[in-house]
Specification:
342 residues, 8 helices, 4-stranded mixed beta sheet, alpha/beta
């Protein structure tokens, strides 16, 4: 009852991009969350983490798990580069490659707001096109993409030096993830700034997926480097899960905090789709959000006092001064009045 399976498509190799969607059967008005891994085919630690998480979300009746399933619309793809992961054959990850079947690094293959389309000089790969279409079809509020080769929370931007509008929020949630890992294993994610780094400060890349999702798709996506070993052995995987488990759930729960609500027409009561929610004097470079199909909107943000403006084509804008704390949920429903000539 909790889980449905779907595919983005079948590659020329016959391998598929396989997803599970988890919720309580009611998706309208809820924030959407995306967990993916292994865009680099030889970085398989996150692949197993997400398989374990899928199993827990589908089978556990723990109160915390049920709260997540009941209030979030979750999408999980454990492996977004199956051709790279199974380069050595469908029954082994030995011989896995970073790139896809064409040898393309797909974390350089997305449009980049600093550089433009095709920053790597290659056509968008089939896997890239499918993932961009998924982000068109569903407006995700938050996401994370698991990588390997290091142990650090890598947040935006990757190809832009100025800080994001929500840099303080990013530092808070990334430290939270790393700190919870430290409670299990103090030697894990213990470099950089106590387990977190701004991407561009670490090293700059163009065409990365997290910059694409944050700038173009309103989605707060982070890259989680979960293992110093690119392809961990089976003996390493239980400890990797134990170390990340609480952090994975806590990051999922972050999507429930911040400013939420529904934007409607003041006369008809009908939901307004595509209304823009802007934090005045704060938002820039894609950080504002819009309302979804049910008129619902979801704006993760660090605690503080903000002036929030709601606007839509053909309607008078409306502003509110709102105060919210860290890890709090504030519900602000808004009715906008239509006006001629707007």
């Amino acid at each position: 009852d909790r889980c449905s399976y779907f595919e983005l498509g079948t590659l020329a190799s016959g391998r598929k991009l396989m997803f599970c969607r988890i919720n309580n059967g009611q998706t309208e008005g809820k924030p959407k969350f995306l967990y993916t891994s292994t865009i680099h085919g030889d970085e398989t630690g996150g692949y197993i983490l997400l398989l374990r998480l899928l199993d827990e979300l589908c089978t556990s009746n723990d109160e915390r798990i049920l709260n997540i399933v009941n209030n979030i619309d979750i999408f999980i793809c454990p492996c977004t580069n199956p051709d790279g992961t199974y380069h050595g054959g469908n029954n082994t990850v030995s011989g896995a490659t970073r790139g896809n079947a064409n040898g393309i690094d797909m974390n350089r293959n997305y449009p980049d707001f600093s550089v433009g389309p095709h920053p790597d000089g290659y056509a968008y790969q089939q896997e890239t096109e499918w993932m961009m279409q998924l982000a068109d079809d569903y407006t995700f509020t938050m996401a994370a993409n698991y990588h390997g080769g290091s142990e650090v929370m890598n947040y935006i931007w990757d190809n832009y030096r100025p800080l994001s509008a929500d840099d303080d929020w990013w530092q808070m949630v990334c430290h939270e993830y790393a700190d919870l890992c430290h409670e299990v294993n103090p030697n894990y994610m213990n470099s950089f700034n106590n387990g977190i780094t701004n991407g561009a400060v670490w090293y700059m890349i163009a065409g990365g997926r997290q910059d694409y999702m944050n700038y173009y798709k309103e989605c707060r996506e982070v890259s989680i480097e979960c293992s110093n070993t690119y392809t961990p052995s089976g003996s390493q995987l239980p400890q990797l899960w134990n170390t990340n488990h609480n952090s994975m759930l806590t990051y999922l729960e972050e999507v429930l905090y911040g400013i939420h609500g529904v934007v409607t027409d003041s006369v008809t009561g009908q939901p307004l789709v595509g209304a823009t929610i802007t934090i005045d004097g704060h938002d820039h470079h894609g950080s504002s959000v819009t309302s979804h199909e049910a008129g619902d909107y979801h704006r993760p943000i660090k605690g503080g006092t903000y002036t929030v403006t709601y606007s839509a084509n053909g309607y008078f804008p409306k502003s509110y001064t709102l105060t919210i704390g860290d890890h709090e949920t504030l519900i602000q429903d808004v009715q906008l009045r239509a006006g001629e000539g707007l």
